Amino acid sequence: MTLVPSFFCTKSPVTLINPGLPPVLLYPVARHPLPVTAPEGLTDRLGRTRALILHALTPPCSTGEPALRTHVSIGTASKHASVLRKAGLVTSTRRGCTP
Fold first, then answer.
1. Burial class of residue 30 (count of CB atoms within 10 Å of its CB; 0-12, 13-18, 19+)
2. C-alpha dihedral sign at 62, 50, 55, 6
3. CB neighbours of 27 closer than 8 A, spacing ≥ 6?
4. Residue 75: what pLDDT?
5. What is the DSSP string of 20-86?
6. pLDDT digits (tens, 9 = 90+) for 29-53
7. CA atoms of 62 and 69, how far apart (whole Å)
8. Distant-in-sequence, close-in-space partners of 70: CB < 8 Å, separation ≥ 6
9. 2, 17, 62, 79: which has the highest count of C-beta atoms within 10 A?
10. What secondary structure letter does DSSP report for 98?
11. 3-class SS of residue 9
């Protein structure tokens, strides 16, 4: 049996069985949010959460990463990133399929 750690397996292990291949067990990897603190003074101008999101976007990453780093929902992180983008403080690039 092959053991494979996975960030996409979030709740419990998953088995992959193909008669022609050895069995595989995917198991969740522990996720530890990175500590994020906003630079001094930025919180006064943008608000605590938006300042944390801005700081968490360095290095560039998907919306899910700043949400994880700042302990907010993906929707909240996306909304703050959108406001920061409209203000010209961040840019975004879409990757993958678009509907």
1. exposed
2. negative
3. 3, 4, 5, 6, 9, 13
4. 92
5. TS--EEEEEPP--PPP--PPTTHHHHH-HHHHHHHHHTSS---THHHHHHHT--HHHHHHHHHHHHH
6. 766 565 567 777 888 888 888 998 9
7. 12
8. 33, 36, 49, 52, 53, 56, 77
9. 79
10. -
11. coil
Contact 60, 84 (CB under 8 A): no
Q: Are 6 and 27 in contact (CB under 8 A)?
A: yes
More confident call, 95 vs 49: 49
More confident residue, 25 or 94: 25
pLDDT of 93 strictly over 90: no
Rg (CA), the chain: 18
**Average pLDDT of the residues of the chain:** 83
